[in-house]
Amino acid sequence: MPLFKSQTVRGDTVHEAATLSRRAALAMAVAATGRVAHAAPASDAALLGIIHRTEQQAAAFMAGDMTRWANLIRLDDDFTLMQPFGGSASHGFDDSPEHLAELARFFRNGGGTLEVEKSYVSGDLIVLVMIERQHGEVGSLPDQNWSLRVTQVYRRHGSEWRLAHRHADPLVGKISLERAAALARGE
Prior knowledge:
Strands 3, 4, 5, 6, 7, 8 and 9 form a 7-stranded mixed beta sheet that branches. Strands 1-2 form a two-stranded antiparallel ribbon. It has helices at about 20-35, 45-65, 65-70, 95-105, 175-185; strands at about 5-10, 15-20, 75-80, 90, 105-120, 125-140, 145, 150-155, 160-170. The chain is α+β, with helices and mostly antiparallel strands. It is built from 5 helices and 9 strands, in the order E-E-H-H-H-E-E-H-E-E-E-E-E-H.
């Protein structure tokens, strides 16, 4: 069962939870929503829903189930993506059936879970800082670990939460200064 570490910020108050099992953390957060005396712009229930949906999205993506992934995700109109393969940020997303089919051929037979390191809730924004522990066949490579460090920013539009930004990188394991310098040089 994945671990769940969370720091939630509302106004000037920071709420921290110790490392807990995901089930225990979810139960505590759901219980806490009943004790909130004020109507927070973004609720613990919204946060928990986004975490759950994000984990389902990651698993569907690595499995190559792009139809399910596309049904789970709502991208903001000005969505930005900083891909784990590097390069410039992309803006917007091509959700055409052709592009989804291309992605399904590229990502196959995988799955994964989330480890939430931090979460921030403020007004109409939710930020998740997490590790996607995942594996799968990517491109022509056999099934392997494809865990990523990920930051995602969600923005509320009415009652709907949309993904506005995703930044992912494969540096889950520590690397040397020399290796980081080589990557920075594009080597």
